[in-house]
Amino acid sequence: MSGEKRPAPEAFGHSSQLVVKRKKSDADLNPGTAVVKSSSQNGALIQSIPRTSGLDAPIMELTGHSGEVFTVRFDPTAQHIASGSMDRSILLWNTYGQCENYGQLTSHKGAILDLQWARDSRALFSASADMTLGSWDVETGTRVRRHIGHEEIINCLDISKRGQELLVSGSDDGCIGIWDPRQRDALEYLETELPITAVALSEAGNEIYSGGIDNTIHVWDLRKKAVVYSMAGHTDTITSLEISPDSQTLLSNSHDSTVRTWDIRPFAPTNRLVRTFDGAPVGLEKNLIRASWDPKGGKIAAGSGDRSVVVWDANSGKLLYKLPGHKGTVNDVRFSPNDEPIKSRALDQAITQLKTEARFYVILSFIFGVFNLGIATTGEVVPFPKH
């Protein structure tokens, strides 16, 4: 999405079957380079680094969707993964063991553009191009509530971190919706004049960060129902927003092919830009590519239009890895919420233990209409001893 609205997706067929087996597919190596800029250097180039990963391909690939994959999320326990696609379905996967696809959720009439897990991992929330949100019981595989009110595609979704469970949505209709998942209708809307493509709810739940096609991040005070300040710097549509684990920094991604960090502490300087990271081009598809923090806030990762994932040190700006393995745009990247190594059994029954100094990434892309979800590490891969 750029300055114009995206058309509604075409119809896709889907299965009503709950458990679906998926096959592993091949992955290609993709070279690339990346650079990073610091705001303290007035945007001057300070680093230029080639791809720095010895990883030739994702360790594990999960296939199953019949359309482009837009979103993926670990649940808070890191035991499960949910993925959402253009094919209108949500697939549920086990993170450990053989990474089985144990569930398929199908009730939306449009592409699944964003997902959020409930804090207790028993419910899943979805944002769709069909202009609705969905609340799902993942134990039964049923949609328990359909939330209506938006008048255009819903691009993004966030959930409260503490206190009352609330959802925040952003739509092409220019509205930010605030929802109680127990109710069908929104509690209220914050109205703007342009499409909203990214939202983030503060840790305290008193502020909403929004981005859209005006290239600017706006900060809303929920008590005043008004914008209290804005952060300018991006030169194209904001594609994702995420607050750091310590709640002091905001991470943004944009169609201008830059990832940026912003100081969101209460009394920060007027120029809140901390750092600008280059090296993750958006590509010709102009998808809403997302960036994310690792659980400790020390690393950030972003998908890109050059079929790779870029990982930086959030504090120094150093590029750590350029991870290959896809044949299309990488739309979303997520770190596992915990440090435990993943043990996986490949199709040839060989067992490996994946050791890493960082976390594990879930990497998405559209590969000729086939869903490709890669679980990759940034460190050593060693044989796991047989018992």
From TrEMBL:
Transmembrane segments: 360-382
Pfam families, sorted: WD40 (PF00400)
Keywords, alphabetical: Membrane, mRNA processing, mRNA splicing, Repeat, Ribonucleoprotein, Transmembrane, Transmembrane helix, WD repeat
Gene Ontology BP terms: mRNA processing; RNA splicing
GO molecular function: RNA binding
Extent of the WD repeats: 62-94, 105-146, 147-189, 196-230, 231-265, 292-322
InterPro entries: U5_snRNP_Component (IPR052234), WD40/YVTN_repeat-like_dom_sf (IPR015943), WD40_PAC1 (IPR020472), WD40_repeat_CS (IPR019775), WD40_repeat_dom_sf (IPR036322), WD40_rpt (IPR001680)
Signal peptide annotation: none
PROSITE patterns in UniProt: WD_REPEATS_1, WD_REPEATS_2, WD_REPEATS_REGION
Region (Disordered) location: 1-36
Gene Ontology CC: catalytic step 2 spliceosome
Record CDD domains: WD40 (cd00200)
Protein origin, superkingdom: Eukaryota
Name of the molecule in the record: U5 small nuclear ribonucleoprotein 40 kDa protein
Species per Swiss-Prot/TrEMBL record: Penicillium subrubescens
